Amino acid sequence: MELSPPPPPKLLDQMRERIRVKHYSIRTESAYVDWARRFILFHHKRHPREMSAPEVEAFLTHLAVERKVSASTQNQAKAAVLFLYKEVLQIDLPWLSDVTAAQVSKRLPVVLTPREVRALLHELNGTMWLIASLLYGTGMRVMEGLRLRVKDIEFERREIMIREGKGDKDRITMLPENLISPLRDQLEKARQLHNKDLAAGLGDVYLPNALAAKYPKAGVSWGWQYVFPSPVLSTDPRSGLQRRHHIYEQSVQKAVKDAARRAGLDKPCTPHVLRHSFATHLLQAGYDIRTVQELLGHKDVNTTMIYTHVLNRGGKGVISPFDQM
């Protein structure tokens, strides 16, 4: 009896497979697949092959007009749907000219004063204190800090290499002198945890792109381990292997939020606020804006320029006539 061929994979599974071929991060995979699902549900589960540019435009306009999403969120949804058409369905859509664009926000970032940073860090301890201190001391994004590998800390040169930052770019930032000793202590804790995993027949960490195939034993080497490993093991959603990932982003966000509440800070505090504060305080100290741009990893200096607006006192530095009476 002749066996019938297996059914083709579902559309979203095909999308996941294509994303992995392109070596996109697991976060991007999750976001893109979710946007593709929303697009299909918005059009009452019609297959994307039955739709084209008008349906894509209608979905993106709905996000901006009805859902009132930010410009960055709308752009992510657009990128996900276009990926579905171009990379999975092999369909090139015509130019999307009738999309109502989400309004680009022109808000200034939340910045803590040095006193507020000290108060916030005072309410943290242990690993969470070290992570928050590292974000403020280096200007790293929270995921850049959590993805930090042992091999990328250079104690002698007082440098930290940030790998695969936003835009898939590498850059170098400073290693604060006052964090050298706490970081060495953290590495010793991470090493003990890694040795425990190795003794249990585990210890293989996730490697980016195709490095696992190129260097089969690199995943268990000490240099590739995360500086901030998770206290618990988890199953890798792609390979199905049991591994020790890094600390969850949500854990750091909650720790910073709770610390800000205990410190009596009225400003909304997230880990990213520490990056904003790092940039602003460097500019206040007189460092060149191009240097700050390089440390932050901004592609365009105009992105860094927003911190110069935060430096202005009052209304663009103008002294009120009321204060001259």
From TrEMBL:
Instruction: Name any one Pfam family assigned in the record.
Output: Phage_integrase
* Keyword terms: DNA integration, DNA recombination, DNA-binding
- Name all Tyr recombinase domain ranges: 107-320
**Residues annotated as domain Core-binding (CB):** 6-89
Which GO biological-process labels does this protein carry? DNA integration; DNA recombination
UniProt entry tagged with the keyword Repeat: no
Q: Which residues form a coiled coil?
A: none
Q: Which SUPFAM superfamilies match?
A: DNA breaking-rejoining enzymes (SSF56349)
Which one of the record's GO molecular function terms can you name?
A: DNA binding
Q: Which domain of life is it from?
A: Bacteria
Q: Which NCBIfam families match?
A: integrase_gron (TIGR02249)
Q: Which family does it belong to?
A: Belongs to the 'phage' integrase family.
Q: What is this protein called?
A: Integrase/recombinase
Q: Which organism is it from?
A: Candidatus Contendobacter odensis Run_B_J11
Q: Which gene encodes it?
A: int
